[in-house]
Amino acid sequence: MAQPNWTDPALIRNFCIIAHIDHGKSTLADRMLQITGVVEDRQMRAQYLDRMDIERERGITIKSQAVRIPFTALDDNTYTLDLIDTPGHVDFTYEVSRSLAACEGAVLLVDAAQGIEAQTLANLYMALENDLTIIPVLNKIDLPAAQPEKYAEELAGIIGCEPSDVLRVSAKTGEGVEELLNEIVRQIPQPVGEAEAPARAMIFDSVYDTYRGVVTYVRVVDGRLSPRERIQMMSTRASHEILEIGVSSPEPTKCDGLGVGEVGYIITGVKDVRQSKVGDTITSLNRPATGMLSGYQEPKPMVFSGLYPIEGTDYPVLRDALEKLQLNDAALVFEPETSAALGFGFRCGFLGLLHLEITRARLEREFNLDLISTAPNVVYRVEMEDATEHVVTNPSEFPAGKIAAIYEPMVKATVLSPSDYIGQIMELCQERRGDLQGMDYLSEDRVEMRYILPMAEIVFDFFDHLKSRTKGYASLDYEPTGEQQADLVKVDILLQGEAVDAFSAIVHKDKAYTYGVEMTKKLRELIPRQQFEVPIQAAVGARVIARENIRAIRKDVLAKCYGGDISRKRKLLEKQKEGKKRMKMVGRVEVPQEAFISALSTDGGGEDKKKK
């Protein structure tokens, strides 16, 4: 076999685009693909790199996408640009962190009409931690509301450059994009690695293909990888043969090997999703490297929710579907659980509510499943008086007995907003048990506020309330910051004296009454009337805090009695009453599936619904 034609590392530039959600990352990637001729005009479509239907529908990026772009710069050399388009939403930060590890530089994109947002700052700090070269860019300069001068100064102040160094582009019209590509070639350093050393490549993403098995995306750091070569995963010691190796340009294209600094994909025919772990190092089996590359931090789930198939027979299908999704999504964790009300299902861990929503939508769409998800809740740590400890991911796991202390997870939240809304933001954060840590003015009319908040208060409808109180101008970013003791209780919902585990919730003591009243009221409307009267109660321990009654369906037993003695009517009514009493003793309250779906699919499942 002829010696492959390796790309000279001096002509390679690996970079990603980082920005807040909706600031135009995917549109800028589209223009780059179009200007460099990678995608012909007739094949072009908006958000070309967003492959999933759900990404295109919602207009958001969920999965990072890597694409190779050839570009002839001003010095007449043709460079290989490896672009990684990243998500902007806080729930998908782990996708961004993995992309950054495969790059030497980042394009920091800021909307010229909105300025810097909280997620932009978070991604910027992450890029600086990885020692990446930052190229600041203002996008959407074609908008009538754009204020490029003002936001260039704001951006320059944060990064520590001159306002004139901030590039101005319009991803929609293509203005300034070619100049940006030249700056990427000029400013971002070439990848560094030893071509003759044993091969080492970092897995930064992997996806499951029904026909070809696991497709692993890698960034080669040292040495070379070739087709038909036997490789080894350094953490699991599993070895495979490379069946196909190639690059995405932007469709998968076979090549005869990957060298230092190149980004591409490998197919080994492996069907087991756990054998291509993101963050693992690939090396050659015949000439293995000694040290692994530093991987990624494992993303920790923040929110737990139960997923149950409406049809019990779909349980094995749901298990297979979750295993396949787990390959594409390293942050998804799940374990089997059963519920008296909902049957067999899985307790799943997510990074946030959007992550939960997207995962559920993908399961329903890609695997034709009908699912119920229980009210999301965070992980609590309960210390008992007998010194034992319990980790509670589900209200049904809440221990009975004497509790010494309950600890809940806390987050460090950053809110960026115009200064007109400081009062509304402070009021909202105080309602949610927030503790103000500091406040800085980024410019005359934009402020950054830092709070410590309980995770449970943020994951439900905090973001919606923040947006509505600030007319959509505020942005939020948060990161976990340990735990804190809190005054929490478990609220049980009882139907005719029996607790229904699916409706239980762990809430702050001050909010237990509100939750109980709202849930009992809701269930009274959702559960159909039975042959006997059904009490719906909300209880904390043995103390009932709220109650509603579902009145019995009453058959008119007096229909045949017209006139006559009242004692005869009374006798018939007494007989009916006896029958109802007996029925109540043996009868079970029938809760239809629709009632579970409606009660659990409210905004935040009621755990922290605020009175408007």
Automatic annotation (TrEMBL):
Enzyme class: hydrolase
Domain Tr-type G, first and last residues per copy: 10-192
Residues where GTP binds: 22-27, 139-142
Record EC number: 3.6.5.n1
The keyword Cell membrane belongs to this UniProt entry's keyword annotation: yes
Main location (coarse class): membrane
Keywords: Cell membrane, GTP-binding, Hydrolase, Membrane, Nucleotide-binding, Protein biosynthesis
UniProt topology in membrane: Peripheral membrane protein
One of the GO BP terms on file: positive regulation of translation
GO molecular function, one term: translation elongation factor activity
Catalytic activity: GTP + H2O = GDP + phosphate + H(+)
Pfam families, A to Z: EFG_C, GTP_EFTU, GTP_EFTU_D2, LepA_C
One GO cellular component term: plasma membrane
CDD domains associated with the record: EF4_II, EF4_III, LepA, lepA_C
Locations listed in the record: Cell membrane
Stored InterPro entries: EF-4 (IPR006297), EFG_III/V (IPR035647), EFG_V-like (IPR000640), EFTu-like_2 (IPR004161), G_TR_CS (IPR031157), LepA_C_sf (IPR038363), LepA_CTD (IPR013842), LepA_IV (IPR035654)
Family, as annotated: Belongs to the TRAFAC class translation factor GTPase superfamily. Classic translation factor GTPase family. LepA subfamily. Belongs to the GTP-binding elongation factor family. LepA subfamily.
Primary role: Required for accurate and efficient protein synthesis under certain stress conditions. May act as a fidelity factor of the translation reaction, by catalyzing a one-codon backward translocation of tRNAs on improperly translocated ribosomes. Back-translocation proceeds from a post-translocation (POST) complex to a pre-translocation (PRE) complex, thus giving elongation factor G a second chance to translocate the tRNAs correctly. Binds to ribosomes in a GTP-dependent manner.
Protein name: Elongation factor 4
Record organism: Nocardiopsis flavescens
